[in-house]
Design a protein that fits this description.
This protein is mainly beta. 14% of the residues lie in helices and 43% in strands. Strand 10 and strand 11 form a beta hairpin. The longest helix has 17 residues.
Length: 394
Amino acid sequence: MHISRTPFVLLTCLAAVTAQAQQSQIDPRLYQLFTPVTFYHSGAAQRFAMSDDTDAVGQEVNRTLMNIYLNRPDLVTATETEIKAGGELRQDIIKPAKQVKQKVKLTDEAVPAPEADDVFGAPLSLVVEKPNFWKFRGDGYLQFLQNYVSDNWYKGGESNYSTVAALTLEANYDNQQRLKWENKLEMKLGFQTSKSDSVHRFKTNNDQIRYTGKLGLKASTHWYYTLQLLAETQFMPGHKSNDERTYSDFLSPLKMNLGLGMDYKYESKNKRFNTAVNLSPLSVSYRSVRRENLATSFGIDEGHTHKTDLGSQITANATWKLNDVVTWKSRFYFFTSYKRCEAEWENTFELKVSRYISANIFIFPRFDDANNRDDKLGYFQFKEYSSLGFNYSF
């Protein structure tokens, strides 16, 4: 037999494999053709036998192997004798040297878990709690400061060293769909003493109660249809040094502003900057005094205790965390009745010394042509102070 017959022999074997596979009975002897070349005795025995009763598959396998043995003996890697000498597969597991006995500890039969009806007497029901859409926060501080007040400041006061306490509370509702309701209450109260004042032992230099409420209906990603209410007054009477006159008091004035318009909200991706701008083309401004003698000081006609103006307003709030130490908080308010104008711009620079200690720089320019005109500053007013003290957020 020559090597040229090998393709024919392989084709014959493959045909036999295909035939066997179709019968779902693959002959195990065929694996000899697909494993590393091994010298099997059956091929030589078939060559020298006088008669051969081997079936067709066995004859073709033996002929193919003998062709390889005779023409390419260098491919033979092992013999059948060597394989048998290696023993059976995993002989150590089949016949271990030492019998291993496992110790089995029996326990009582586990009682099946009771059905829900057996425990509670009724089928279980799924309870889904309604999410809480309210968020509450607040912060406050007690600080000591150096204070500057222009002579024509509309609430009185003078430049000096003093102390001030402040508390801000917020309660905001957001249903994460279309409705927002924001509530913010700001309270400040500061006292000062002055050696030059022989009339007042203590007098206020910071006095504010301010409420801001916004009811918004979402129009787009950043815009809301908004109804905004601003209300502001103070705690105690306001005086100037060596002057017995009262320049302001609780509910004197009381300023309220109701505006209908749109609110724009934006927050940066790193959450270091956020702003809210309210545009109210239709706004109602209401001012009243409890003390009738203070009416003209706040743009109310003499002999009256209140006044209502129609106009437009703009309110803007922004917080910018410049870095881990410095934060800038700003508030801008503008209202015009197209006869008079009122503008305020509050700026607070907070320098965080530690978790509970901070320093503040407060700058507050103001314009109000409803007040009496000053010979030097006209209708402009200015207030500034710097302070150092304790702060706490919750």
